[in-house]
Amino acid sequence: MEGPPLEVLKSSSPVKHSTFWLFMGLAVLVGLLTGGLVLYLHRRKRHIPTDDPIKALEPDKKLSVSNSNTIFLFGDFQIFDRDGADITKLFTPLLKELFLLLLVNSVKNGRGLYAEKLDEILWFGRSEQSVRNNRSVNMAKLKSILESIEHCQLLKEAGYWKLEFDYDFWYVDYHSYLDLIQAKEKLDEQHIRLLFELAQRGNFLSNHNYEWLDQFKAEISNEVIDVFLIYAHSAKAHNPEFLIQIANFVFNFDQVSEEAMIIKCRALSSLGKHSLAKKAFDVFIKDYRLIYNEDFNKNFNEII
């Protein structure tokens, strides 16, 4: 009676064995195909610009996790190579201005700066021969520095000099700033905090006073204030302590910003800190009087 079952077991064993290896082979094949697809999409994604600039920034991470391949333009100008070494000292005063002039314009408009405009800014009043010699020498020096740091090129295209960075390898705070600022109406608290972190290093190129830079500085100051105030007035702003930080930051750019004062006083009041709110108002009206030589036209109760 036990004979037939044994025969069944004996005959079914190789079937199960081959089926097992068939499924294993299919699993490996699916895994390889899936891995290849993920890798392809990842590489493709890195080279296709997103339609939503704020999606390019991860809100749960700091803007720069290390100084490797990093350029800071907010606060003091600093540039770090791939090993995190500060190479700012390699730039002489003229090379620094040349680099910053090309960098700011390249990041801002993607084209760089027209050659004749570059000559006019840096070597105005010199003979054509002198300009040509100075440009040639300093461009060669700049190229030499850039060749040592990789993933950055000095190019001339259609009469424009420009710097081209591979942002997969480089962090440039001004580039990240522009990504954020383009979507100012859509920013949530996480992205506002990224902008806050970025700008906390200081005003844009704060220790540099080139005449050509004034326009950029004014534009950035106005944009930062506008973005923070737009957010502070939006329905997304519900953290009074963060609103106080925003107001204080705006005061760094405009110490008599009425909007910042109102935001700060109301946020302090909502936290039950009424005496601090009144003190903030008193400081504001004192500064207002000193700057405009007239009294502010509202009292504390009107703005709360």
Give an overview of the whole structure:
It is built from eleven helices and six strands. The chain is mainly alpha-helical and 304 residues long. It has two domains: 96 residues, Arc Repressor Mutant, subunit A; 119 residues. β4 and β5 form a beta hairpin. α2 crosses α4, α7 packs antiparallel against α8 and α9 packs antiparallel against α10. The protein is elongated.
Residue share in helices?
A: 55-70%
Radius of gyration based on Cα positions: 29 Å
Which structural class matches the secondary elements?
mainly alpha
Strand count? 6
- Strand-residue proportion: 5-15%
Low-confidence residue ranges: 1-23, 32-62
**Total of DSSP H or I helical runs spanning 4+ residues:** 11
Output mean pLDDT.
83
Note the gap between the termini.
Answer: 96 Å
Strand order of the largest sheet: 2-1-6
What is the general shape? elongated
